[in-house]
Amino acid sequence: MATLTESRKQSLRRALEAIVGKSAVLSDREELMVYESDGLTLFRALADFVAFPTSTEQVSALVKLASQEGLPFVARGAGTGLSGGCLPSEGGLVIALSRMTRILEVDYDNHLAVVEPGLVNLHLSWAVGPRGFYYAPDPSSQQACTIGGNIANNSGGPHTLKYGVTTNHVLGLEVVLPDGEVVWLGAKTREPQGYDLTGIFVGSEGTFGIATKIVVRLLRKPQAVKTVLAVFDEINRASEAVSAIIARGLVPAALEMIDQVTIQAVEDAFGCGYPRDAAAALLIELDGLAAGMEAQAAGVVAACMEAGAREVRTAKDEAERQLLWKGRKSAFGSYGRVSPAYMVMDGVIPRTKLPYVLRRVNEIVAAHGLRVGNVFHAGDGNLHPNILYDPRRPGEEARVVQAGAEILKVCAEVGGSISGEHGIGLEKMDYMPFIFSPADLATMHRVKEAFNPRGLCNPGKIFPTKKSCVEVGPGYRPHPIEEKGLAQRF
Ligand SMILES: Cc1cc2nc3c(=O)[nH]c(=O)nc-3n(C[C@H](O)[C@H](O)[C@H](O)COP(=O)(O)OP(=O)(O)OC[C@H]3O[C@@H](n4cnc5c(N)ncnc54)[C@H](O)[C@@H]3O)c2cc1C
User: Fold this and answer.
1) What is the CATH number of domain 103-220?
2) What are the start and end residues of each CATH 3.30.465.10 domain in the chain?
3) Mean pLDDT of successive 10-residue segments in the chain (490 residues)?
4) Atom of ligand 1 minimally distant from the CA of 76
5) Which residues line ligand 1 (CB under 6 A)?
6) Mutation test of ligand 1: which of 52, 140, 326 has the most ligand atoms closer than 8 Å to its C-beta?
7) Which of 22, 26, 187, 272 could form a disulfide with 327 if both were Cys (CB 3.0 to 4.6 A apart)?
């Protein structure tokens, strides 16, 4: 989008204020800078405005205004995304949903809740916990990320091995379409009639419209939980234990791996009880009926010991369980102890390829003169290599991006994918051809155009930019970031 003239900016600001109020619009550069990035700080883009609606009507009015004015707009939840998805990559309006945080309805009999999109994920479980319920999708960022952001990215988390990702827990959505129309997709029941438009909206990374109400499933808390820590002197043995556990027919609720670099960072930050000298540790959680739980735990212990664990222990109480989980869920933040910055990758691979791919990750990163820490959803084969770097060193960011691209290429080559849960956003759009053909991309583009024909809703995301990659449809055009030369990644 061309830069706005000062007079147009003033008149747009007045129009935005008329919708949401004076105190709910930002347009000063210093204030806008707070919204120029998400959890992946490698990318930055400055909006012209940030507006904070408090109702569906206000979101709809903002979107109608943006549509009339030809102003690009993008929804923002908590900004914890790790692919640049909520960045205003062409400027325009950020619609920040952080003031739409209400739980509108809880129906315990039918195990569902209706929530606003800015509700923090964990706050829902806190609200329904006293009645014995919880909301299952648990991204490690759940203390901060919003359910609207989870919907957009179809987020996962440690416990999605057993319970599935966000899409498995969303029944219906109220959506403001990119022309401002408000529609309902799905319903409050499991199998609504017609096309599964809720399913298509979940995971669309904010490019199909803005969710303003979300109907989610609530689950009853499990009767019993057992959390096991298995410690290994060789990372390969930990990888083998992952397959061995699943091969026994056990389905843990969570099966997470954390490597030595990460263990040391976590121990420096929180002292969670992971042995510092271990090459890798598995955090395995079983839940369900109390009957049979001991037998399942014994199966996990045996599988780990047979794979060569040097120590396997079960959390003796809830306090120890919480501490072990704190180490896992705070691992990303802990890298601050060992590196000024990191970039988290999000590849998916078949579980059986773990030993090979982890070796390749280490080789690739070392070849670029960098270090890596791994903490990931091993049971799902969803890797998170975290490439550690110092942005103050000239050329280091470019090497990080290059190493990241090579890692994702390896994931694709072994039959995996370039994103398990963080989305494509800005970060991975040029890697889409690793896994999709031109025909696939053109089809996806047509679906996007059905929802978002003018392309004003979260433009410049998901589809590859490089002219050498592919022409993806009539609406295709190179992204401004490419023109600025920032997309020279692979
Ligand atoms: C420490 C850390 C740990 C993480 N762990 C995990 C993890 O275990 N699993 C996982 O999946 N992710 C994880 N993430 C990534 C991130 O938290 C998730 O992608 C999360 O869902 C983003 O939510 P958000 O509210 O911050 O969304 P934002 O970052 O604000 O936005 C993300 C996307 O959602 C869109 N969006 C936001 N609200 C709406 C709406 N109402 N309607 C339509 N589109 C909308 C935005 O436009 C953008 O495209 C982690 C991030 C961090 C920083």
Assistant:
1) 3.30.465.10
2) 103-220
3) 88 98 97 95 94 98 98 98 96 98 98 98 98 96 97 94 96 98 92 89 98 98 96 95 94 95 94 94 96 95 97 94 92 92 94 92 96 94 95 93 95 95 94 94 96 97 67 38 37
4) 30
5) 38-39, 74-82, 85-86, 97, 117, 139-141, 145-146, 148-150, 152-153, 155-157, 205-206, 210-211, 332-333, 421-422, 458
6) 140
7) 272
Q: Residues of CATH 3.30.43.10 domain(s) within the chain?
A: 6-96
CA of 137 to the centre of ligand 1 (A): 12
Closest residue to atom 21 of ligand 1, CA basis:
150
Domain 6-96 fold = 3.30.43
pLDDT of residue 193: 82
Atom of ligand 1 nearest to the CA of 38: 29
pLDDT at 466: 58
Ligand 1 center from residue 25 Cα (angstroms): 22
Pocket test for ligand 1, best of 155, 198, 330 (most atoms within 8 A of CB): 155
Q: Look up the CATH number of domain 339-413.
A: 3.30.70.2740
Q: What pTM value is reported for the model?
A: 0.92
The 3-class SS string of the chain reads CCCCCHHHHHHHHHHHHHHHCHHHEECCHHHHHHHCCCCCCCCCCCCCEEECCCCHHHHHHHHHHHHHHCCCEEEECCCCCCCCCCCCECECEEEECCCCCCEEEEECCCCEEEECCCCEHHHHHHHHHHHCEECCCCCCCCCCCEHHHHHHHCCCCCCHHHHCCHHHHEEEEEEECCCCCEEEEECCCCCCCCCCHHHHHCCCCCCCCEEEEEEEECEECCCEEEEEEEEECCHHHHHHHHHHHHHCCCCCCEEEEEEHHHHHHHHHHHCCCCCCCCCEEEEEEEEECCCCHHHHHHHHHHHHHHHCCCEEEECCCHHHHHHHHHHHHCHHHHHHHCCCEEEECCCECCHHHHHHHHHHHHHHHHHCCCEEEEEEEHHHCECCEEEEECCCCCCHHHHHHHHHHHHHHHHHHCCCECCCCCCCCCCCHHHHHHHCCHHHHHHHHHHHHHHCCCCCECCCCCCCCCCCCCCCCCCCCCCHHHHCCCCCCC
CATH number of the structural domain 224-333: 3.30.70.2190
* Residue extent(s) of CATH 3.30.70.2740 domains in the chain: 339-413
Instruction: Out of 63, 145, 208, give the residue to mutate to test ligand 1, the one with the largest number of ligand atoms within 8 Å of its CB.
Output: 145
Distance 153 CA to ligand 1 centre (A): 6
Mutate to test the pocket of ligand 1, among 37, 153, 262 (most ligand atoms within 8 A of CB): 153
> Which pLDDT score is estimated for 467?
45
Q: For the chain, give every residue range classified as CATH 3.30.70.2190.
A: 224-333
